Amino acid sequence: MSSRERILGAVRAGLEGTAVGRDPAAVEARLAAHAPGLIPARGQLDAAGRLDLFIAMAEEVSTSVTRVGAMAEVPAAIAGYLAEHNIAPIAKIAPDPVLDAIPWQAAPLLDLTRGKGEDADKVSITSAFAGIAETGTVMALSGPHHPTTLNILPETHVVVLRADQIVGAYEEAWDRLRASGRGTPRTIMLITGPSRSGDIEQTIQLGAHGPKRLHLVIVDAPS
Question: What separation in angstroms does the CA of 222 have from each of 17, 55, 161, 172, 181?
């Protein structure tokens, strides 16, 4: 018997009987429980603490943040951000019911078109599924209302996020997704700051393979 056969034989022997690898009921029970591993203490805060930590961690990785009181204030906040950075007020917006409900006419200078991201787009506006406080990360789910290209192609990505969507740890974000009943989308993107690379002479360059700016508009009012 060769070494390979002995190793495979030992593996087969270990999987015999009611071992987890062979018992469908045990596998289903494990998946249903999805017990979390060790969760960092820094994200285990109340709502106000999670929000403060999320903003601090996001800004630490070059994400800019604006807070507004209600969805009605989002258009003016985005228009002000673009003007401050001398960016033309032309944006591709996700065909998202959450964003459609915003009174964009409050900022008449914003020129918005809906659809997927294209090479020519300079600015995109999307919502997000969750914010993760422990790293200042945005969780974005792909789908008809959120084309993934809007996260990648434009130079400036603006994300509208409610404060009550911010959780402490990654495990909580995954739990929310499971509980939402929407199933697993084709793509789940975890976005932590603008795209960056240090491959060229070990100097950080923003926008290496995605947006060079990530701006969050956090809405304090709940949905």
Answer: 51, 17, 10, 18, 21
